[in-house]
TrEMBL record:
It comes from candidate division MSBL1 archaeon SCGC-AAA382C18. Gene3D superfamilies: NAD(P)-binding Rossmann-like Domain (3.40.50.720). This is Nucleoside-diphosphate sugar epimerase. InterPro entries: Epimerase_deHydtase, NAD(P)-bd_dom_sf. Belongs to the NAD(P)-dependent epimerase/dehydratase family.
């Protein structure tokens, strides 16, 4: 296969590129290396994954370009069999500060990918987000437990499913722009313009993730712990997410690509599911166990549209993609900690 990975110098994108390169496929990476600018953060090694792929794999072609520019997209999409679209503005906070940029990257960028994919008959994997459900998630009844919150309604015992409502609620600009791309991908697939799947992702974590306070919380907590950085918890720390190790995510993407003739389209909530959940406080406990350290913590007010509980119902992905997570949080956090220890000079 020939696979195009947009945002391939990012965390998820670089793991997608590595997966197909290891398998012997031709991989094209498109990235503008603008993550630090989009997040308004000083990132010590914004080109780390770019250089890693360049130095590790001769079958990965690296192209500097921007998904907002159709000519850039069209050129690299030539003769590809699949496009894994990970390029995005990824932070809620950044979208509130600069909604126009967020829209152009996430909505216009996705539209350009779809138009190029149509020309090449390429399958598309779209990285969506649980933020498309917006503040509706906070309407689900929850209960406070020791160290965490949880859904109290029996109908949500497996988590949030793909038919959960998206309308009549606040989303934030980020949630809106990702939802726009999400719906466009669904429409192109439903009209048989392309084969495409939407993956509404929960918290993805793993090695080579340069987490910051605004995005990538599992990695950010690990970095803060190991590098003795102060940590701010917004809320009380009992908020819960299902977490998914990045290698498990990439396997789910590939399952759709391999099954495109059978499945053709789909929307999948994608995370660790009910068996792989963590509260912020529980993650700190795991990190203390793995490192012997606990960071200095300050507490602040809840942030806009922060969901107290979000857990993906992954039963549809398990059934249709014949997939399930393999790496549990203990193992995954251990892998992340080991990588940070080995690459302290590369992280923020």
């Amino acid at each position: 296969m020939r696979v195009l990975v947009t945002g391939g110098a990012g965390f998820v994108g670089s793991h997608v590129a590595e997966y197909y390169a290891e398998r012997g496929d031709e991989v094209v990476v498109l990235d503008n290396l603008a993550r630090a600018d989009l997040l308004n953060q000083e990132i010590k090694k914004p080109d780390y994954n770019w250089n890693y792929l360049r130095d590790s794999y001769s079958n990965v072609e690296l192209v500097r370009g921007d998904v907002r520019e159709y000519d850039d997209v069209r050129e690299v999409a030539e003769d590809v069999h699949a496009i894994v679209h990970t390029a995005a503005q990824t932070a809620v906070t950044a979208s509130l500060d600069d909604a126009p940029t967020d829209f152009r990257v996430n909505a216009l960028g996705t539209f350009n990918i779809l138009e190029a994919a149509k020309e090449e008959d390429a399958a598309v994997v779209y990285c969506s987000t649980n933020k498309v459900y917006g503040d509706n998630v906070n309407e689900v009844l929850i209960e406070e437990r020791e160290g965490r919150y949880g859904f109290s309604e029996p109908s949500f015992e497996e988590g949030i499913s793909e038919d959960f409502p998206i309308d009549l609620c606040e989303h934030t600009p980020y949630g809106c722009s990702k939802l726009a791309g999400d719906i466009y991908v669904q429409d192109y697939a439903e009209r048989n313009e392309i084969d495409a799947a939407v993956f509404r992702m929960s918290c993805i974590y793993g090695t080579r993730q340069f987490g910051v306070e605004d995005q990538g919380w599992v990695a950010w907590f690990a970095l803060a712990t190991l590098l003795d950085k102060p940590l701010t918890i917004y809320g009380d720390g009992k908020q819960v997410r299902d977490v998914l190790y990045v290698s498990d995510l990439v396997r789910a993407f590939d399952s759709f690509i391999q099954k495109r003739d059978e499945i053709q389209s789909g929307v999948f909530n994608m995370g660790g599911g009910i068996d792989n959940t963590l509260s912020l406080l529980e993650l700190l406990d795991i990190l203390e166990d793995k490192t012997g350290k606990r960071p200095q913590i300050e507490y602040s007010d809840w942030r806009p549209s922060d969901q107290k509980v979000y857990i993906s119902d992954i039963s549809k992905a398990k059934k249709e993609l014949e997939w399930e997570p393999k790496v549990d949080p203990e193992e995954g956090v251990g892998k992340l900690v080991k990588w940070i220890k080995e690459n302290k000079d590369m992280v923020i």
